[in-house]
Amino acid sequence: PVLRLLEAQLQDQRREHEEEMEALRNQVDLMQEELEKQQQAFLQTLQLSPEVQVELGLQQEITRLTNENLDLKELLEKLEKNEKKLKKQLKIYMKKVQDFEASQTTVPVERRPHERNMQVAVQRKEKDFQGMLEYYKEDEPLLIRNLIT
Q1: Which of 48, 107, 125, 149 could form a disulfide with 52 if both were Cys (CB 3.0 to 4.6 A apart)?
Q2: CA dist list (Å): 53 to 62, 63, 89, 129
Q3: Do 118 and 97 form a contact (C-beta atoms < 8 A)?
Q4: What is the pLDDT of residue 125?
Q5: Torsion on CA atoms 10, 13, 14, 17, rounded to nearest 10
Q6: Which helix (H) or strand (E) holds 53?
Q7: Which residue positions in the chain have pLDDT lower than 50?
Q8: What is the pTM of this model?
Q9: Residues 27, 30, 36, 38: what is their CA dihedral angle, to the nearest 10 degrees?
């Protein structure tokens, strides 16, 4: 029974190996055909006059640059769309901060941060925090403002 199992495994491996070899042979054949096509195209190009060779080279380069340009334009549009989205979010958050600051009239003047020094943080993933926070009552508006920004 063990010998039969080993023979079956060996036959399976041989069959897999032969299938892999056949797939690789097919791949090599396809690559050889492609290489022959490229060689023929190259030989035809060599038979052309130098002016035509230069023209073909320029056409290929123009095509490559055009495709690269289209890709860059697509990327630029995507980045501009993202920039507009981020600017909208920034305006919303700035408005919320200003509304909150306007509603906080109990904060002493020396504790109020100057609006010019206000920094806006990048939006982060929301996290669930559990626990308690200890703070002084007069620090509450500052705490809330920092939480918002």
Answers
A1: 48
A2: 14, 15, 54, 69
A3: yes
A4: 57
A5: -160
A6: helix 50-103
A7: 115
A8: 0.36
A9: -100
